[in-house]
Automatic annotation (TrEMBL):
Organism domain of life: Bacteria
Species of the source: Desulfobacter latus
Protein name: PilZ domain-containing protein
Domain PilZ, chain residue ranges per copy: 56-140
UniProt signal peptide: none
One GO molecular-function entry: cyclic-di-GMP binding
Length: 156
């Protein structure tokens, strides 16, 4: 038996249906969303049926974006833009040719296109040099507890 996966809404609710009688529920899952990417929850329906759902708060799909940012490495600054982003990493395009090596670490600062235009700073690892202008980067951690975490939850 496969356990159904449910997604967290922007109101921090999740909706699911009892597989036995078809009654649907919307539950407040706000207390779970900060902990783990996936949480297994157990519910008892009014009909007596007990069932589990997997609460998925993170979607690992990449999103094409256009976010202005600066990559910083060895006291050099490379202004440019993020062209796609996921909780695991991003692709950064520099305005000028950049001598950035594969597997080197750097810091990145960028502005989100959320209503607050939040500024985000992260340490990253350059995983792939795609050209002298384009770099595939990985976040140090794929857990984001600031506005970037909310961005992945609600603007994806
Ligand atoms: Zn039921």
């Amino acid at each position: 038996m496969t356990i159904p996966t449910v997604y967290v809404t922007s109101e921090l609710n999740a909706s699911f249906t009892c597989e036995s009688c078809g009654k649907s529920y919307t539950k407040d899952v706000s207390k779970f969303v900060r902990h783990k990417a996936r949480v297994r929850l157990k519910y008892k329906c009014k009909c007596g049926h007990i069932f589990s759902v997997i609460l998925e708060r993170r979607r690992t799909i990449r999103k094409d974006v256009c976010l202005k940012g600066v990559l910083m490495q060895n006291e050099k600054q490379y202004p440019g833009e993020i062209t796609d982003i996921s909780p695991n990493g991003l692709r950064f395009k520099t305005l000028r040719k950049a001598l950035i090596k594969e597997d080197s670490t750097a810091e990145i600062k960028f502005t989100l296109d959320n209503p607050n235009c939040s500024e985000v700073r992260r340490f990253i690892k350059v995983r792939k040099v795609l050209s002298e202008y384009s770099f595939g980067c990985e976040f140090e951690s794929s857990e984001h507890f600031d506005d970037l975490g909310k961005y992945f939850l609600f603007y994806f």
